[in-house]
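<amino_acid_chain>
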Amino acid sequence: MDLPELISPPFDPDDFEEIIDVRSPSEFLEDHIPGAINLPVLSEHERHLVGELHATNPFEARKLGATYITQNIHLALSSYFSQKPSDYSPLVYCWRGNLRSHSISIILRAIGWRTRVLQGGYKAWRKWLISNLQDTIGATPPHLIILGGLTGCGKTRLLHALKSEGGQVLDLEAMANHRGSILGTEPDAPQPSQKKFETLLWSAFRQFDPARPVFTEAESNRIGRLQCPPALWNRLRKGRVVHLELPLVERVKLLMDDYQHFTQDPELLKSTLRGLRRRCGNDLIDEWNHFIDQEQWSDYLSSILSKHYDLVYRIPGSEDSIYQEPSETLTLSSSSSEEFHKAARSLLERYQ
């Protein structure tokens, strides 16, 4: 029986018919090669039991691990692999490219499928990706066009409209699953790991057409708990800035629509505001809590925008901002979808 073919980074994930990550679901969730599927040869519980036994008896741990692995491969063969054609040719990897990936690849090759193993596993892939981030993200072109503006002016909505109209978009808040402020946590889903965030960035930049600009939103160097890689931060610093303006009353409408989870759970909002007590003072927090208790949402939003967010906004081009002075200002009259799509078409006509 032939030993598995070994593949080492760099390689293009798109070159493989299928990439199989045989690590546990939690390892896969933390990060994985773009496009990979997860077929664990050890469940979370099984991996824990094997690891616990390995601390006292490595030999018995290997026997137990082999038992679990063969059982799980048997299940995969009778289900997932059952309809694969004779020319099926996957790439398989685990954490270090050892027991888990070699175990399944030997069996798949014995069947007749050309199965390759990532030498060094995910660990080698991650090491290579980190070394490649600067070249992939830091390269110009494509040129970045940064959408700036006060909180609630609709930068994210304009990004979505630009994408809908055919523009290239880097949606950092979507990748980070966070809206970029103390109130930006998404209620139903956690942020990805830093590793996953960097993989998403790497993958996005690989797919951009360098001949066309990429629109993105002005962010701080931290989005929630995630850090922008230095290569990205440097690109943002050099990008052309378009300043977006929207009347306060329309900003309030937009935020009421975007943050409905807070109106549905006022206590969650009040607990989140506690993080601003030191910066804003007790009187202001108490004012906002009063508006919340009375369900005076327009008053609350008008107040927190004008008395907090607008005051801490770092104006592009100023000494405390890393962003360039805006090359133009785009003024919208309303927060309607039609207005954002009109603005998107206007930007694409000028910069595309």
About this structure: The chain has two domains: 5-130, 139-351. Residues 58-78 form the longest helix (21 residues).
